[in-house]
Amino acid sequence: MTSFRPEAVEGQAPPADSVHPRESRNDAPTSVSRLNDTIRGFIERWGSVWVEGEITSFNRRGGNVFGRLKDLGSDSTVAFRIWSSTLARLPKDFEVGDHVVACVKADYFPRTGDFSFAVSAMRHVGLGEQLERLERLRVQLRSEGLFDSRRKKPLPFLPHCIGLITGENSDAEKDVHRNAELRWPQVRFRTRYAAVQGDRCVPETLAALKALDADPEVDVIVIARGGGDPQTLLGFSDERLVRAVAAASTPIVSAIGHENDRPLLDDVADVRASTPTDAAKRVVPDVSEQRAVVAQLRARLTGRLTQRVLHDIAQLEQLRSRPALRTPHTMLTARAQDVWMLSTRGRDVVDRRLQAEDRRTRELRASLRALSPEATLARGYAIAQVEGGGIVRDAAQAPAGSRVVVTVAEGAFGASSTGAITPDDSPSVGGPPAGHA
């Protein structure tokens, strides 16, 4: 039954804005705005509720988040929005696939007829305390310098063998092999399988890491697995594994999850790859790119050598074009007269010097001959020497019976002294008797 309205006129429908939705009929419909206002008033009485589900959409627009939450046991979904003021108070690691509990309040917009839930609180299911412990561990490891870029080891340009730690028959293993072999077909792998989640993840990964790090042929180690929610990635934030990676002597690449996944292993590894595919691109060079680089360097080298040879040829031609090198005999001809004059002058100087020295030699020889005892001996004089003594200058030096050596101009002979004689006893010009001095 409809209520009486004074403005209603018999045979004429009342205005739509004046008809309550519950009183509307075919000849007296309500308006859209009145319907939306009624729905909004009804929804506002619901209040806030806690709901559990999986995030299937999480889009940021203008500082706000618009997403959808899916029921864990069915395909039912609801839309939610997180205003920027609320988002600033929530953890920063929410993403698609997370299992969460959210406090939501129904909201209806009369102007557009859109229905959504405004989130006032949200947290990961079962991860609250674990995430807090991980954040404390992250702060501790950072303070110890394990995240410092200066301690991280560089990757080899072209590893001879790549160590791979991943799940057996996993997509991550296939991605790493396929992309690495596409980039460098001769690449070799040494794979150690380990559980990538659950209780066996940490001990099996530690054992694989120890074996590959001790292998002298392994130049780099890649730890890879596909994406997952924070709960399944907890093993890669274990303190034992993180410290073992920091202590390893072989460079290690972390390829855990997708771009938004961030376990502690990513921070301590020498290189963090966003995906297993990205890890393959980081550990081996692209053979086509390297061939292009080699071709470019070869072309540059050829160009530089050609330029240098042409420059040297031009320099040589310039030198050869100079008169001294173009007709070198001209320089010799011009200097031949000077050489002849100098040689002639040198011969004259030498001849005059030889003649002067010859005259001087003859003069010295004549002087020496004049002063030499030989000249005196040649005039008939002799030198008498007592045997075993000196030259006889006094007759007393040669008493009778003494042996005397007499030196004349042509040789010497021995004589026996008869003692001193008087001037009257001197021999004639013919000389003393033979055998007497």
UniProtKB/TrEMBL annotation:
Q: Which UniProt keywords apply?
A: Cytoplasm, Exonuclease, Hydrolase, Nuclease
Q: What class of enzyme is it?
A: hydrolase
- List residues of the OB-fold nucleic acid binding domain: 31-123
- Region (Disordered) spans which residues? 1-32, 415-437
Q: How does it assemble?
A: Heterooligomer composed of large and small subunits.
What is the role of this chain? Answer: Bidirectionally degrades single-stranded DNA into large acid-insoluble oligonucleotides, which are then degraded further into small acid-soluble oligonucleotides.
Q: What is this protein called?
A: Exodeoxyribonuclease 7 large subunit
Q: Per UniProt, what is the name of the gene that codes for the protein in this document?
A: xseA
